[in-house]
Design a protein that fits this description.
Layout lengths: L1 H34 L7 H22 L7 H6 L2 H35 L13 H27 L15
Helix pairs in contact: 1-2, 1-5, 2-5, 4-5
Length: 169
């Protein structure tokens, strides 16, 4: 199960990296097309869709690597049992919020498909396509938070180190 979950997080991160490279290509295409006096319709919209896809698909991998912003000052000031209780409470709330966000993201993508929503730009992209990346990323993030919560309950979660914030730059 651990290998499957890690594969899911790594796969989402690889897809995010691919979308980031595509984002670079879209921005370069936009710049080059302006310099050479021709227009490629939809480049700004597609760059936005790719940026959103990159961000959402990278969330779970970032969480599992311990790279999300955490307020550890308060956490490390608490005694052992209170620290664990606070950690469990925070993970439970984060899991609930991630599950709700995933639910509503999936609902948005589904409704965009059912109502045949299209973008207002020249490209008239069906909006369920870019909404799918948000829905997929938020579902994987909810799974990652649930994974972290289960690991914390079982006592198998790696603790946050006091100097972890110093290594992020």
């Amino acid at each position: 199960m651990r290998r499957l979950l890690n594969g899911l997080y790594d796969g989402a991160a690889a897809l995010a990296a691919l979308f980031m490279v595509c984002l670079l290509g879209m921005v370069l295409l936009s710049i080059i097309s302006r310099q050479l006096q021709f227009h490629v319709p939809g480049t700004d919209a597609y760059a936005g869709y790719l940026m959103a896809a990159t961000g959402f698909l990278a969330l779970a991998h970032t969480l599992k690597r311990g790279e999300h912003i955490r307020v550890t000052l308060l956490l490390h000031a608490l005694p052992g049992r209170m620290q664990r209780a606070f950690e469990l409470w925070a993970l439970a709330i984060a899991t609930l919020l991630a599950l709700l966000f995933a639910l509503y993201s999936c609902k948005l993508a589904w409704q965009s498909h059912v109502f045949a929503d299209i973008s207002t730009g020249n490209d008239a992209t069906p909006l369920w396509i870019p909404h799918m990346s948000m829905a997929l990323g938020s579902v994987i993030l909810a799974i990652a938070f649930l994974d972290e919560l289960v690991l914390e309950v079982m006592g198998k979660r790696a603790p946050a180190h006091r100097d972890a914030a110093l290594h992020s730059e």
